[in-house]
Amino acid sequence: MHRLYSNENITVFWNSEVCRHAKRCVTGCPKVFDITRKPWIDISKDEDARIWQTIQKCPTGALKITYNHGIRVVFEEEACRSAAYDGDRLVGMCQYSETEEGRCIYHTETDPAYGGKSIGKRLVYCVAEAAEKSRIKLTATCSFAHGLLFP
Description:
The protein is of the alpha+beta class and about 150 residues long. It has helices at about 25-30, 50-55, 120-135, 145-150; strands spanning about 1-5, 10-15, 65, 70-75, 80-85, 90-100, 105-110, 140. It has a five-stranded mixed sheet, with helices on one face. β6 (about 90-100) and β7 (about 105-110) form a beta hairpin. It is globular. The two termini are about 15 Å apart.
């Protein structure tokens, strides 16, 4: 299961399949990481810097974090994609097709001028989370998406 949690400044990625429950997140930032709450991650509960420092201590890499750099990522089901916007400008997308088995991510792309900002990862996780919430099987022929979701 892949989840992302965003505010205006940061995005936190959580991969439950990698998580080994070392509890460094829970002890390092208990207001944000609370296993008695659903969802268990609420990044509005503490400062971005403290969240960042806590996630850097995750021994398994199940938690990762990136700055958003002013880029907004949205799921656009009617267009079969997630899209990244800098203001009104489209700067990236992750496209999928509907198949008999579910959804298949076939293309992920970001504007080269926006490289190194984890936009592609945010786009892929956005599609993955939407599929999971709708209980739709997800596959990927896009090598980038496949590497993130099925390492």
